[in-house]
């Protein structure tokens, strides 16, 4: 598959909703190490409701999972400096991304 890079507007044309956050760890030799590289946010694409993981090189979340679950309304976010990539996982085409930071909209 070609090394296709996508912009925020191409992946999230109607915006994104924050669903969760988890640590993002380094992998070596196909195994996860204890070294945390940052955070991996799960965002829901408002136009198709697909989930996209966006990695940020920061260990301080903008919100905890407890805060996200307690929110009464959807949490709209924007990933600044976003770059998306397309990949194939078990025959399914998906999108992931990385960004400089995630901010509340």
Q: Characteristics of this structure?
A:
single chain; 105 residues; mainly beta; 2 helices
Question: How does this model look, in words?
Answer:
This protein has helices spanning about 10, 65-70, and strands spanning about 5, 15-30, 30-45, 50-55, 75-80, 85-90, 90-100, 100-105. The protein has about 100 residues and is mainly β. It has an 8-stranded mixed β-sheet. A hairpin with a 2-residue loop joins strand 6 (about 85-90) and strand 7 (about 90-100). The termini are far apart. About 15% of the residues are buried. The model has no long low-confidence stretch (mean pLDDT about 95).
User: Would you tell me the structural class of the helices and strands?
Assistant: mainly beta
SSE series: EHEEEHEEEE
Helix content: under 10%
Note the total helix count: 2
- Arithmetic mean of pLDDT: 94
Radius of gyration: 14 Å
Number of strands: 8
How much β-strand is present in the residues? over 45%
The separation of the N and C termini measures 33 Å
| Widest β-sheet, arrangement of strands | 1-6-7-4-3-2-5-8
Shape descriptor reads globular
Q: Characterize the biggest β-sheet.
A: 8 strands, mixed
Low-pLDDT stretches are none
Secondary structure elements and pairings:
Layout: E1 5-6, H1 8-11, E2 16-28, E3 31-45, E4 51-56, H2 65-70, E5 76-80, E6 83-89, E7 92-99, E8 101-104
Parallel strand pairs: 4-7
Antiparallel strand pairs: 1-6, 2-3, 2-5, 3-4, 5-8, 6-7
